[in-house]
Specification:
alpha/beta, Arc Repressor Mutant, subunit A, 2 domains, 5-stranded parallel β-sheet, 4-stranded antiparallel β-sheet
């Protein structure tokens, strides 16, 4: 599916030139001439089944709702869509202000379409990389992929039972926190579990055998005597 971009530019010639250049590169481009229409497009895209825009190309000098204010509103609303500002404002103060209100890059007019496309692709790569990293929890030689319920050790998949995985996920997402057996039972086995609390010790031992270089001297799953266990 083509990557969807939003171009916000009040100059008709520049807007259509940018639209054509990005479309030729295989992007799906929505273009508008003012901040109000841009905000509406962003809200509709976020609510649609197709998902939000991957990138916004934003002029600062817009009628009505200006580019800086649109950028500020997006960030205040928690919208992390990458923003490439394109503006004739070329002073250092203008560039700093644009970046401080939430823009990810700043391109000064006039500019070439090849540079614009290159900057868009660079921002999309950075955004994609950040999303991928956010989907992984890494600690030393262990990597947990929450969306896949998968764990690797030194790059190789580790075969874990559902309870082992949920235990490890809890530990890795809360490093250094000490968990008592009762809290682990509550979080992993549930409030209605009435079995022996020693099942926690058994599962910890199984995890150590699969994850630790030396299970008898663990580096990841550490016993905190008198309190419980912690990760790291």
């Amino acid at each position: 599916m083509p990557t969807s971009l939003l171009v916000v530019e009040d100059d008709d010639t520049i807007r259509e030139t940018i639209r054509d250049a990005l479309s030729l590169e295989g992007f799906t481009v929505t273009a508008c001439a003012n901040g109000r229409d841009a905000l509406g497009n962003l809200q509709r895209a976020a609510a649609s089944g197709d998902g939000p825009f991957a990138l916004v190309v934003l002029d600062l000098m817009l009628p009505g709702l200006g580019g800086l204010e649109l950028c500020r509103q997006m960030r205040q609303a928690g919208d992390r869509t990458p923003i490439l500002v394109v503006s004739a404002r070329d002073s250092e103060a203008d560039r700093v202000l644009g970046l401080e209100v939430g823009a990810d890059d700043y391109l000064i007019k006039p500019f070439g379409m090849r540079e614009l496309v290159a900057r868009c692709r660079a921002l999309l790569r950075r955004s994609s990389s950040a999303v991928e990293e956010s989907r992984q929890v890494v600690h030393g030689n262990l990597c947990l992929f929450p969306e896949e319920c998968r764990v690797t050790r030194d790059g190789l998949d580790v075969n874990l039972s559902p309870k082992e995985y949920r235990l490890l996920e809890l530990f890795m997402q809360n490093p250094r926190r000490v968990w008592s057996r009762d809290k682990l039972l509550e979080q992993v086995w549930g409030h209605d579990y009435f079995g022996d609390s020693k099942t926690v010790d058994v599962h910890i031992r199984w995890l150590r055998e699969k994850l630790e270089t030396n299970p008898s001297a663990p580096e990841h799953l550490v016993t905190v005597r008198g309190f419980g266990y912690r990760f790291g």
